Amino acid sequence: xxxxxxxxxxxxxxxxxxxxxxxxxxxxxxxxxxxxxxxxxxxxxxxxxxxxxxxxxxxxxxxxxxxxxxxxxxxxxxxxxxxxxxxxxxxxxxxxxxxxxxxxxxxxxxxxxxxxxxxxxxxxxxxxxxxxxxxxxxxxxxxxxxxxxxxxxxxxxxxxxxxxxxxxxxxxxxxxxxxxxxxxxxxxxxxxxxxxxxxxxxxxxxxxxxxxxxxxxxxxxxxxxxxxxxxxxxxxxxxxxxxxxxxxxxxxxxxxxxxxxxxxxxxxxxxxxxxxxxxxxxxxxxxxxxxxxxxxxxxxxxxxxxxxxxxxxxxxxxxxxxxxxxxxxxxxxxxxxxxxxxxxxxxxx
Amino acid sequence: xxxxxxxxxxxxxxxxxxxxxxxxxxxxxxxxxxxxxxxxxxxxxxxxxxxxxxxxxxxxxxxxxxxxxxxxxxxxxxxxxxxxxxxxxxxxxxxxxxxxxxxxxxxxxxxxxxxxxxxxxxxxxxxxxxxxxxxxxxxxxxxxxxxxxxxxxxxxxxxxxxxxxxxxxxxxxxxxxxxxxxxxxxxxxxxxxxxxxxxxxxxxxxxxxxxxxxxxxxxxxxxxxxxxxxxxxxxxxxxxxxxxxxxxxxxxxxxxxxxxxxxxxxxxxxxxxxxxxxxxxxxxxxxxxxxxxxxxxxxxxxxxxxxxxxxxxxxxxxxxxxxxxxxxxxxxxxxxxxxxxxxxxxxxx
Lengths: 349, 349
Known about the structure:
Distance between the termini of chain A: 19 Å
Order of helices and strands of chain A: EEEHEEEHEHEHEHEHEHEHEHEHE
Number of domains of chain A: 2
CATH superfamily of the largest domain in chain A: Medium-chain alcohol dehydrogenases, catalytic domain
CATH topology of the largest domain in chain A: Quinone Oxidoreductase, Chain A, domain 1
Number of helices of chain A: 10
Helix content of chain A: 25-40%
Radius of gyration of chain A: 21 Å
Oligomer: homodimer
Structural class of chain A: alpha/beta
Strand content of chain A: 25-35%
Shape of chain A: globular
């Protein structure tokens, strides 16, 4: 294994905390030699990193559902890689794994972290990037959030924002499989067409459509949710959350998964002015964090994998090349430029 | 019964819909002769009317959890009265009843309304005004809201706003009985002292205290909720809701019962800017409407009556005299002037 130490590990570290959208100045590129794995540990070569809206929150100081990334630390990221050295009988060189790899080319995973389930083997036949998407954290977020908090019943109307994103595409497809009417909200005609024509959503509202013929999201909800909204899976917050609140049914469930419209605010978050619709409709708004379901990921993965194999579900990723492009690639999430789950390819397999 | 027709029924009707706080111009005083009850109906003499924050909502146009009061209709109100004429074998002259009496001196209740459980006999030995308070709609709102949505467990911290009001006093006392730490929020030292010293709350924060020594509600929550907030029963909305959201624990439950701080807004409702605390804490915010529990009111009343009889619970009403004072009495709710459940006494027993 002595050849490992000849390898250089390029990394991207958090240099400073952003105000508003992250800029180049918030990042620092570093390199260091690759080390041998410790006793019981493994060394993983990063292939694909998952770029997620939640990353913006990790860059902020202060308590959240997970500790912030420290200044000068390698930026946190999950991803898929290949084991290139192993001192652990559970992992062989050549195994494909999903793990917290961070934004770097090589990642050492300690025995302790392996014990804490910080790494697991993946079935490459389902596609490597799929494990950052429908079969990864976003997929599990969508699956457990929809099923456990949303509790969909056949015939109900489910609205999902960020519909072409990683969580959104999972939520909408599961809701269809469960017999619901599914209405997406996405930015741009291409994404809307894709979720309707390829994923089978019943309709999709283009929130970026400023055509004078269009009345926007409000009119779209009125047209496509003639029986109101039973479940809203919210990835965006802001005005759209308020517009959906105005359309919810008695006993509706609103799953608060994210609020990407608010993450780069330099002004206070816009709270939902229509929240009293919860009172009028005896409805519920509940937050979810995927980690709470970690002991059942394998069940979610098994169900999603079954749908993928049988063709009932699709997984679309938008792959950007090169670790050096991490800072600019991340911004695609916030202007809605990514089409499908945003993934950074760090190395060829 | 022909003497009934000699009686005059004074009424207060909604003359126009208010913008902001209701004014005298929004009301019209009318009088009409009292009619005999129809077949199977009863005639009730109004003794006490319940004045509630929700009344402000009923004065607005548009869909809510209940139809608005129509212009020129007698203002909707529940209350306690005495049967003075009956064509129904279930009710005798002299019976005390709780019913939708509206803001008038006499109310005819039809056979159909009786069948729909629009009237029920009350035990006067527990106090007549108690039936507008702990044993009435506010009490049932507090009881079912706390128990069914809040699901308190012994040792948890429960915060309730409007703590000295009808719903608040019920919620806090039940939460104490269930073994919780209870922190009230109320306006003024007298109310705070009362809920702590008389009702047994663990603490009460005076949101009106502008003493420079005081840091307000935020500091009060920090001081009195050292283990965070597990349940927040919200009657007020606005800034206080945001401050509590900043203090909630993992899996907290927020019961949205009302938002009195927002009812007279002429600007849009202030949505809770800290609502993403629901995500971070996997917490839930859920609206309740008491009518949903109508088939179990008798169970709630029986439990509350038991606590009242055994001295575990108290019920405090603030009684204003005279139907002609309805318009000004109602305003006491919105400036927080009432001390205890606000009740209008329309007639002597």
